[in-house]
Amino acid sequence: MNKYILYPGCSMESSARAYYDSLKAITDIIGLDLQEIEDWNCCGATEYLGIKLTPAYALISRNLALAAQQADGTRTVVAPCSACYLNLAKADYYMQEQPVLGQHVNEALAAGGLSYTPGSLDIRHLLDVLVYDVGLDTIKSKVVRPLTGLRVAPYLGCMVPRPDYEHRWSDYEYPVELDLLLNALGAEVIEFPLKTECCGGHMTQISPDTAFELIRRLVSAADAHQADLMATLCPMCQMNLDAYQSETNKYFGTSFRMPVIFFTQLMGLAFGLEAKDLGFGLELVSARNALAKIGIEHPAEVPAGTARPKKDGSLPMPAPLPPRNMPAEKGKVVK
Amino acid sequence: MQTLDQERASAPPKQIEDLSLLGEVSHRTAGVSRLEMCIQCGCCGGSCPSEADMDHTPRMLFAMLRAGMRHAALMSNTPWICVSCYHCVVRCPQNVHIADVMYTLKSMAIEAKLYQDSTAPDFSQTFVDMVEEYGRSFELGLATRHYLKHFPLRLPNMAPMGIGMLSKQRMSIMPTRIKGIAQLKAILKRAKEVEASS
After folding, report:
1. Which residue, B111, B129, B144, sits at the end of a domain?
2. Are B6 and A77 in contact (CB under 8 A)?
3. CB contact under 8 A, B83 and A198
4. Which of A90, A317, B169, B187 could form a disulfide with A112 if both were Cys (CB 3.0 to 4.6 A apart)?
5. Is residue B23 helix, strand or coil?
6. Considering the entire predicted model, what is its pTM?
7. For A2-125, CATH number?
8. What ipTM describes this predicted complex?
9. Mutation target among A54, A155, A156 for the B interface, most CBs of B within 10 A
10. Among A7, A43, A81, A162, which would you mutate to test the B interface (most chain B Cβ atoms within 10 Å of its Cβ)?
11. Domain boundaries, position B154
């Protein structure tokens, strides 16, 4: 068993539940022992850094201090979320590069009875650990249901491959690790030129026009490459491309329906696990058709909202919630 | 650079001191920002996915900092439009920590209350308020407060998404509070004191 300290981050328990569920489902199979940091706090995402410097780094570093304190037989922290990974890595790196920052942070941590020596932990992303520690051969050896025929657009987003303080990836702008992993699962991996382009980040919340254009670029490129789905490793990317795809479609008058799935969900499928145990059905743009293509049954979907499904042929009514971009399968839910 | 000439010509002595602006921004940035090393090549703007929506490219903004144009630089929407994608950071031949400089400029703009649009500062502040209260982010609380104030007209379009997120339990109704919230609050309180005195 490879032992690691796990920093899940807030999204893994809410919007990216499918990511956490599927990760938990595959850890035993590939021999990963992940010990979650006890009582971790939010990393501040991309918000706190723009408000106040020392508190932002102190917020991040409480997690580092707890991780170092609780570490048992390992000094590696694994983060599956991009923003969490970058924040932890950034704090650790900058406190070494600029010792005065580390001093200030430690003054603050002392108020909570904690301390952290910068550089005493390794901060790594989940994909990094899977590809370089577990290894592609091991992963390949666990595949019992190759994803043959599934066209996947590998999508990493920004904050995992960049700025890459420790030079862990094959490239800043076109890294191949995710491609290799998906390939090991038997999927047909698309050469996806936008694989590290931005999903818009928090722009969906503060400057929607900027975000919609970035989402459109990604989804339309995956569509043009005839991808059955996009595989991602970032909760923010998944949220923006999945949950805001409908609003983006309305904004541009397009009708893309590109499922965006976490790569760990695909690993689970290839390892022979049931789709329902891997968080499938939680995506808003359903992956049902993509799974059907490779003969895998998609779990029954939670019906969205309380609205009664309309029968075909009913009178057209002014709809405050236009159904055009809602999941097409809504009316024919298999229970 | 007409604007710069005009500003220099009419600058009272106090504003001349703003030639330290570049150093101030650099000093307040985490790590070693290398902002002083910018050679004005423009790789940053050329790499930026949201440059079209910016008042100034990062290169222009850094020139303004060097010229001491405090008001114009802090009023620029550029740091708020930056999506933190780090394309410019890895392409910058001088290894300037551009994304982190943008964070510094945001915090300076908030401090000086200089911004054209309060949407982004409000969002960051609301997010931080939730984190300081619970130790975790609370998306439903954040989204509700933020959208009602800044995007009420988007709500009808967003309703299906919100309902989907709630019914699929991808958004919690209630916030989660960490056990060590008192410890976290003490740490953040001290951090703010350290920040104020440094």
Report:
1. B111
2. no
3. yes
4. B187
5. helix
6. 0.90
7. 1.20.1050.140
8. 0.91
9. A54
10. A162
11. 119-197
